[in-house]
């Protein structure tokens, strides 16, 4: 078969840059960000995050060709806000969101492994996460009717009425 090796879709070649930035000459205050070895997954996430910023006037992406493993993201911002700054802020926000998602997943996995699955809201999840990071002996009120005792990484559940 004459298909290219699979690793070519995600490994950068020697000297190949992950991202390049070019000014868009057709539109004022706009840039084109070309990201190598990425596809629709990352393109759509970044575009969505950029559009949450009120100073971003336009954000879109395209994959130039299905056999090319790169995406081109076009960003246009207000005159007092650079596209590079918008892109950097979007990436920073995404990293924060994904870190929070990972932490929540780890807490849920920990509770599941302890045969205890409780639906936490965001505030409770942060509280429990901070405690789990230390794995000490901790008594923590989760809800008015429920208390978790965390001892040496094991979660014990106590009802209060």
UniProtKB/TrEMBL annotation:
GO BP: any one term: transcription by RNA polymerase II
Domain DNA-directed RNA polymerase RBP11-like dimerisation: 31-103
UniProt GO molecular function: DNA binding; DNA-directed RNA polymerase activity; protein dimerization activity
InterPro entries in alphabetical order: RBP11, RBP11-like, RBP11-like_dimer, RNA_pol_Rpb11_13-16kDa_CS, Rpo11-like
Parts forming coiled coils: none
Localization, UniProt: Nucleus
GO cellular component annotations of the record: RNA polymerase II, core complex
The entry's keywords: DNA-directed RNA polymerase, Nucleus, Transcription
Family in the record: Belongs to the archaeal Rpo11/eukaryotic RPB11/RPC19 RNA polymerase subunit family.
Name listed for the protein in its UniProt record: DNA-directed RNA polymerase RBP11-like dimerisation domain-containing protein
Organism, scientific name: Anser cygnoides (Swan goose)
Classification of source organism: Eukaryota, Metazoa, Chordata, Craniata, Vertebrata
